[in-house]
Amino acid sequence: ATPAAVIAALGRLAGTGVLIKGGSALERLAGVTAFAFDKTGTLTEGRLELGDVIPLSGATPDQLLAVAAAAEQRSEHPLARLLVREASSRGLPLATVDEFRAHPGAGVTARAEGGALVVGTRRLMEERGVTLPPEAVAALERLDAAGQTSLVVARAGVVLGVLGARDTLRPEAAHVLAELRALGIRPVALLTGDRAAVARSVAEQLPVTEVHAEMLPAQKAEWVAAQKPASAAPSSPGGETDSNSNPAREEQRPTTDPVAGPVATRAPESLPDFPGEGVGGRGSSVAFVGDGINDAPALARAGVGIAIGSGTDVAAEAGDVVMMGAPLAPLPLLVKLSRETVRIIR
Ligand code: ADP
Ligand code: MG
Fold it and tell me: Is residue 38 flagged as an active site residue?
């Protein structure tokens, strides 16, 4: 519904690798007061490296890796790719499996000759009736302390071991988040399926305002949907005085109070008026940035879903905005342009 101003803004974004699906996404972005980020592959590079390998129940490190990689052969998750790559570089043959199932935010299950395979979180083990021996619990705690993402590997109900993985923060992440805060964005939240200790160690290196760990994909979507437009418009751009990087170390918000009743139709001064685009709707004030495989629900529920695209990524279809090149760097410019564009239109 918009003329020259949108076209001009799109022109300034050309070459940054940002794809905006329609002018209305840009307009909705102008009304965004909060940002939420996924961790793996979004704030981090998503090119994982193998960390500690802790075999249990008499397994060898190679057996542990081979079983995990066999289960992960058909998963697109960065952890899965790491395990398959590692098994292949060690020359480990992978057993054929069937009944493969991916459990977003939790892991994978499959059936192999030696029995049912379960690879993933402690919660997934519990759901599948796998009991963790004390050595596995201790191993997970050691990996937490080391800031490593972890997963448990079980076959036929027996825990064969625990694996750790390390990821690298995107070098631009801290600066980009600081710029968003300077633009008045609150909260700048980290939402992750990873364990609290790992989330905290990432959050310590970033100017996020809140952290939520061990969230399933549906819980990320619920969090996004429950955000209400801030009561005041983003104020004092550049006037950021609160440099406290992460005051809130909460694990989870109370989920008992989702959006109570319809959200105010517009936040003063901050939301543009464009009918039919869900202004004032659930989650309309928040932009969610995710790469995932797992993040499609949150991308869909957000006022603006920003997908880190890899071309074949399913999330690229879910997003209103797709970042192809440098995935985080253009975000502050995008917010500034959207605000300018809306000012010009009105
Ligand atoms: P994030 O929110 O950081 O992107 P995910 O939601 O993708 O994390 O995953 C959360 C946790 O679930 C991981 O830390 C891992 O323990 C487990 N997990 C998810 N997918 C897999 C998988 N394919 N194989 C093993 N574990 C997995
Ligand atoms: Mg993810």
Answer: yes
